[in-house]
Amino acid sequence: MSTTADEDLVDVDPYDDGSFPQFRFKQAPRGLATRRQLRAMGLSPGGQEPVAQLVWRRGARMAWLYRIDLARPKRVPTLAQERALDRAMAARQTCPACRRRYHHVLPLRTLGSCLECYDGTPADPATYTLPPGHTLAA
Fold first, then answer.
1. Which domain holds residue 29?
2. Which residue of 10, 42, 65, 91 sits 20 to 30 Å from the alpha carbon of 25, by its own alpha carbon?
3. What NCBIfam families does UniProt report for this protein, alphabetically (predicted)?
4. Total of domains in the chain
């Protein structure tokens, strides 16, 4: 059984003492942000590893913190990607019975249709759009 020198190497950081910095809610230093905060700034982590941890609710909730200076701009989806996402959402928002597209996701797995088609509960006309129909005058 032969082993190469590469298999024996271990990635060790000589400056890491084994503790990961943890900060309580609203006590993180400037220059660090969560994913959601980066997203609000138009940024993404960009492949960097988290540098600290934000902990709140007595340790029940946790979020990773990333360096803002290493973050990259968000990728902008192409037109084809946006079209594909719209088709996927349309499949989840369109009632198969009445063909209305609602502004929210329908319970198609459990009910199989919108509430109006399922049990007659009237739907607010502001919550859906009518299916494309026939546009001829006659």
1. 19-73
2. 42
3. QRL_CxxC_CxxC
4. 2
Locate 22 and state its tokens.
């943890």
Mean pLDDT, consecutive 10-residue stretches, the chain (138 aa), reads: 58 62 89 95 94 87 93 94 96 94 94 93 90 66
For residue 122, what are its two tokens?
Answer: 């009237």
Tokens of 69: 């200076």
Query: Do 28 and 51 share a domain, yes or no?
Result: yes
63 within a domain of the structure (yes/no)? yes
Same domain, 59 and 26: yes
The reported pTM is: 0.56
- Number of CB atoms found within 10 A of residue 37's CB: 17
Residues 105 and 85 in one domain: yes
Tokens of 99: 């063909």
What are the backbone angles phi and psi of residue 32, rounded to the nearest 5°? -120, 145
Q: Report the phi/psi class of residue 21: left, alpha or beta, with left for phi > 0 and alpha for psi in -120 to 50.
A: beta
